[in-house]
Specification:
mainly alpha, 0% strand, 13 helices
Length: 284
């Protein structure tokens, strides 16, 4: 065992570290790498042409388009909500602050199915506001608004939880100085606050986007599984797989996996280039 001034306490156990590294690599290979290989292998087993034809199907096109639309709406909204929540918690003291923190973490604690069921109980035909929605010919459940609401709920913590520790660590002196010099609140945010949190914000947005595109449980409850209308890519994969359309199912799954890999690459690049600031956002 050894320690050094200003550094973390370290334990040296010869022979243990390589063994732990081998076990970790084996587990990651078995749980992550091999399933991904199987997905791509099954998708391209009949060649590129079969994959292209499967993805050109109207239902597949609709699922891809709907997945991107839901992510394009929910992720920016969660970015705004996350910044606002982090700002309130890091910069102000108020009654109910701990309750707000609990609510931010709540989607991590409850099943995604429950997150979807909440909206059905509120906006479904038999829900709290169901009669009013029917009278005004408004449709939320089994439509795009329901998918967006369900996705926003399950992805809400990602941006806020990346920003809160970082903003709590950062001093508010620069913001106070800007306000003292006559800058407006909006100008202070754009010129001072945002540059200080930009990389942690981008990291949170990447995580939020990955979850939004891959969410299954919550959107499954509110979608109604209408092919070509309310099925996102994860739901489309399930429908095709249950119908024994393996080429189409694995082709759609390969698209999802590809989107996830792109997110992972961007995430890794961001961590590599801005590791200091991102590490600060995880201190608490």
């Amino acid at each position: 065992m050894s320690t050094s001034s200003g550094s973390a306490f370290r334990v040296h156990l010869p022979g243990i570290a390589p063994l732990l590294l081998l076990l970790s690599a084996t587990a990651m290979t078995a749980l992550v790498v091999l399933p991904l290989i199987v997905v791509f292998q099954e998708a391209f087993d009949d060649g590129w042409r079969a994959v292209v034809e499967a993805l050109k199907e109207p239902d597949a096109q609709a699922a891809i388009r709907l997945t991107l639309i839901v992510a394009a709406i929910s992720v920016p909204l969660n970015a705004v909500f996350g910044v606002a929540a982090a700002w309130c918690i890091a910069r102000f003291e108020f009654r109910g602050k701990s309750v707000l923190l609990t609510l931010i973490d709540l989607p991590f604690s409850i099943s995604p199915v429950v997150s979807g069921l909440v909206w059905v109980l509120l906006f479904g035909a038999q829900g709290l506001f169901g009669d009013w929605l029917i009278e005004h010919d408004l449709k939320i459940i089994f439509a795009l608004p329901g998918l967006v609401l369900a996705t926003i709920l399950v992805t809400f913590p990602f941006v806020a939880r990346e920003l809160i520790p970082l903003m709590q660590d950062q001093s508010a002196d620069e913001e106070a100085a800007a306000l003292t010099l006559g800058a407006s609140g909006l100008t202070t945010f754009w010129k001072v606050t945002l540059p200080n949190i930009r990389w942690a914000l981008l990291y949170g947005i990447l995580l939020c986007n990955a979850r939004a595109m891959g969410e299954f449980g919550a959107v499954s409850v509110v979608s109604g599984h209408i092919r070509g209308a309310t099925n996102t890519l994860p739901l489309h994969v399930e429908v095709l797989y249950n119908d024994y359309e393996s080429v189409g199912a694995f082709s759609a799954a390969a698209v999802l996996a590809g989107l996830g890999l792109v997110t992972l690459i961007l995430k890794t690049a961001l961590e590599w280039r801005h590791s200091g600031e991102l590490a600060a956002s995880r201190r608490h």
